[in-house]
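Let's study a protein:

___
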Amino acid sequence: MIIKTRQDLNEFLETSEFTVFKFSATWCKPCKKIQPFVHSCLEKYCCGFVNMIYVDVDESQDVCNFLKIRKMPTFMFFLGKDRMWVLESSNEKEIDTFFSKVRGVVEEMVPQKGEDDGYQDF
């Protein structure tokens, strides 16, 4: 999914329950350096229940201005259309904590194994 405009953002958020956006740029060295760690956090904490959208700030200035992106990398967690948390950091401990908090919300909202909906256990 490519998010370049506010309309793209709104249309996507209307259909997504849990979304983390990572705002970065191809020239951002800290963004590139932490990418493997971000991927491991996504696998460790989000279990396929969270949409991860990567937004290039140079290609999505409308969205970045609207969301007031000031630093890179920036992570944003949305619950539906509601912005819950923002993290402006490349610090691995802070990123790990961010994804752990996201998992906490998902665990509260997604039915667990044993309930009649077919979702898997975390």
Q: What stands out?
A: The chain has one domain: 6-107. DSSP finds four helices and four strands in the chain.
